[in-house]
Automatic annotation (TrEMBL):
Domain HTH merR-type: 1-71
PROSITE patterns in the record: HTH_MERR_1, HTH_MERR_2
Species whose genome carries this gene: Streptomyces calvus
PANTHER family from the UniProt entry: HTH-TYPE TRANSCRIPTIONAL ACTIVATOR MTA, REDOX-CYCLING DRUG-SENSING TRANSCRIPTIONAL ACTIVATOR SOXR
Coiled-coil stretches: 77-104
GO molecular function terms listed in the Swiss-Prot or TrEMBL record: DNA binding; DNA-binding transcription factor activity
SUPFAM superfamilies the record matches: Antibiotic binding domain of TipA-like multidrug resistance regulators, Putative DNA-binding domain
Protein name in UniProt: MerR family transcriptional regulator
Annotated keywords: Activator, Coiled coil, DNA-binding, Transcription, Transcription regulation
InterPro entries xref list: DNA-bd_dom_put_sf (IPR009061), MerR-type_HTH_dom (IPR000551), MerR_fam (IPR047057), TipA-like_antibiotic-bd (IPR036244), TipAS_dom (IPR012925)
One Pfam assignment: MerR_1
Amino acid sequence: MSYSVGQVAGFAGVTVRTLHHYDDIGLLVPSERSHAGHRRYSDADLDRLQQILFYRELGFPLDEVAVLLDDPAADPRAHLRRQHELLTARIERLQKMAAAVEHAMEARSMGINLTPEEKFEVFGDFDPDQYEEEVQERWGDTDAYRQSRERTASYTKEDWQRIQAETDELTRRFVALMEAGEPADSEAAMDAAEEHRQGISRNHYDCGYEMHTCLGEMYVSDERFTRNLDQARPGFAAYLRDAILANAARHTS
């Protein structure tokens, strides 16, 4: 069975002019010609066109596509394996790009108007806005959420660096307490938890003890929070949660 150039153009979503060009440069020469000299494409030609369009989608120049397809050492399975590897790599790149765009959108909605260089300088590989969706879902209609957006909208790079330095120092204190064997409900741990709460109130929103305990529970119930916190020391997320709960009980009992 054979197909006209118009039919093939319709199947593949390309123009007739494109198919004529592929024929002219020897990339896709139709297997047959009609009595009137019109191009007729076979199923094998359609398979080759599919391969051409795949490599073109990945950005390969036509001359390189021709080399790839005409390699006598390559069989169809080799082409499929290569295409699978290339497609997988592209998917990963696109996923990273999509994530970066999402984070940029979140940062803009939170008023974090830092340049990309400044974000890396301040936060390293930790994105401070990656949990914005969960925060908005849980507290988007609260005064605390609105207060946080209003405050952070005016923050500069230096403000974020100060906040990050405070966070890092407090984390080091908690880790030191853990390594010293201090229980999470010890005075020292509860004092550190109180500083954690006050830092949130000072830099983001008025964080009462009830809100603080909600945050503590989220640190262990959401594996992403847990994974990030436990980078400082395994078990840190749970220790911080327990210290927060003990501190809240101390102040509200």
